[in-house]
């Protein structure tokens, strides 16, 4: 079988799910840029031909390291599933003459460049301004309509996102955001190819008003979706749409749900705007995860596109509902093998599946007053789920049982996650209801079974 070099870094689907998908098409050699998950090692390590752990490196040194290791194992393909390594891997593939995301990969990573390309291409985006200094903040409030969203240009998982209403709040938020990004970098959740810029680069953008009521067949859905896809030799193949529960302030994800309960005619509209967005970025061969904000009267705005699959268990959700092994499809494409893509994006599947993020906050984003210890096994899940539904703990993306729940902090976003659960149900409506009951009931469930450790204040 062909040798495949897999670059591991923080983020992306868990290894126990991803590595068997890759190993089905070649011998997997892992180059780990971050500590590998020990709690699931028995599940993922047997799929590896070799595992090499290296000290963290950045920029061109990292690209050279990847190239050297690829040459050592005679890799026919190099890939990563981490947001933080996609740029370095793309540059390595260019140097090696292998299929990859291509020269324009930064456009799918730096939110400032991404928005400028979309603005120039006529793709709908909120008004925005780059922030490099206090003067930029003042100019942004002169040209944009507050409140504004302060974003780290290279972040993921809503990290370092803050709502600001005036220049003073923006100044304080920028300082807080840089601290959050610096702390994230220490934990391995930061851009690896341009780490110096990843901490300090920010933008301010207008907050567009989302409205899901005109879009979904039923209440309770969030006002944005993501289109999962693959770009193959420059040709974009949108595969399906994933919906959301409503986010909590500022825009932290609570749960992603596949499929989205949208009429087909509306799914086709979203498919076309995602096509315009991805085509404008000029990518080569890579996965794509394109987020679209939905508004009243059919309005849409592009949030971002990533040159990788959706995080958490998105790939597993798609396989469960639509039968598409997206990781395997991408691997075969990178190896130059023939891949059969749907002629049009799939809009109907079988059942529903979702990724539920466990946070110490209620549905409105209010932090829990007390922080109990996390313990998946202590919760009576059968009392919270619909008939026919099931829930599993994603061990790699969860804290050990007995750990005190992290306090939810608005600027921290997904960094406040205690655990991730994979939920499956007979329908998207049932799954949405299941997730809602879990979010509402979990503080009581944990407090009743796991003694409260400390106050959230």
TrEMBL record:
<protein>
    <submittedName>
        <fullName>Acetyl-CoA carboxylase biotin carboxylase subunit family protein</fullName>
    </submittedName>
</protein>
<dbReference type="InterPro" id="IPR011761">
    <property type="entry name" value="ATP-grasp"/>
</dbReference>
<keyword id="KW-0067">ATP-binding</keyword>
<dbReference type="Pfam" id="PF13535">
    <property type="entry name" value="ATP-grasp_4"/>
</dbReference>
<keyword id="KW-0436">Ligase</keyword>
<feature type="domain" description="ATP-grasp">
    <location>
        <begin position="115"/>
        <end position="335"/>
    </location>
</feature>
<keyword id="KW-0547">Nucleotide-binding</keyword>
<dbReference type="InterPro" id="IPR013815">
    <property type="entry name" value="ATP_grasp_subdomain_1"/>
</dbReference>
<dbReference type="InterPro" id="IPR052032">
    <property type="entry name" value="ATP-dep_AA_Ligase"/>
</dbReference>
């Amino acid at each position: 079988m062909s040798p495949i070099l897999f670059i591991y870094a923080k983020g992306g689907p868990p290894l126990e799910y991803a590595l068997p998908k890759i190993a089905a098409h070649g011998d997997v050699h892992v180059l780990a840029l971050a500590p590998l998950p020990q709690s699931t090692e028995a599940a993922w390590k047997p799929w590896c031909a070799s595992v090499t752990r290296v000290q963290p490196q950045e920029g061109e040194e990292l690209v050279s390291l990847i190239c050297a290791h690829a040459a050592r194992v005679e890799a026919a393909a190099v890939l990563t599933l981490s947001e933080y390594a996609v740029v370095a891997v793309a540059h390595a593939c260019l140097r090696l003459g292998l299929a990859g995301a291509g020269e324009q990969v930064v456009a799918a990573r730096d939110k400032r460049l991404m928005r400028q390309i979309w603005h120039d291409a006529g793709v709908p985006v909120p008004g925005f301004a780059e922030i490099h200094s206090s003067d930029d903040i003042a100019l942004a409030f002169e040209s944009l309509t507050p409140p504004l969203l302060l974003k780290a240009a290279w972040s993921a998982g809503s990290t370092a996102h803050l709502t600001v209403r005036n220049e003073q709040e923006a100044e304080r938020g920028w300082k807080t955001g840089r601290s959050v990004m610096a702390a994230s970098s220490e934990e391995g959740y930061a851009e690896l190819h341009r780490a110096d810029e990843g901490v300090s680069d920010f933008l301010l953008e207008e907050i567009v008003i989302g409205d899901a009521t005109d879009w979904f067949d039923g209440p309770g859905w969030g006002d944005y979706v993501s289109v999962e896809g693959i770009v193959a030799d420059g040709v974009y193949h949108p595969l399906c749409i994933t919906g959301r529960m409503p986010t909590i302030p500022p825009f932290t994800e609570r749960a992603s749900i596949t499929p989205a309960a949208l009429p087909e005619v509306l799914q086709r509209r979203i498919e076309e705007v995602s096509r315009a967005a991805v085509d404008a970025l000029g990518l080569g061969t890579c996965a794509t995860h394109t987020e679209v904000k939905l508004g009243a009267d059919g309005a849409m705005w592009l949030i971002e596109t990533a040159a990788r699959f959706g995080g958490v268990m998105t790939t597993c959700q798609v396989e469960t509902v639509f039968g598409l092994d997206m990781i395997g499809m991408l691997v075969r494409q990178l190896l130059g093998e023939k891949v059969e893509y749907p002629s049009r994006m799939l809009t109907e599947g079988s059942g529903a599946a979702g990724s539920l993020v466990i946070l110490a906050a209620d549905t409105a984003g209010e932090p829990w007053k007390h922080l109990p210890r996390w313990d998946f096994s202590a919760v009576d899940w059968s009392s919270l789920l619909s008939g026919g539904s099931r829930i599993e703990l994603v061990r790699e993306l969860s804290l050990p049982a007995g750990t005190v729940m992290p306090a939810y902090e608005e600027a921290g976003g997904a960094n406040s996650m205690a655990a991730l659960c994979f939920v499956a149900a007979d329908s998207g409506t049932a799954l949405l209801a299941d997730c809602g009951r879990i979010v509402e009931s979990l503080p009581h469930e944990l407090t009743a079974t796991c003694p409260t450790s400390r106050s959230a204040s």
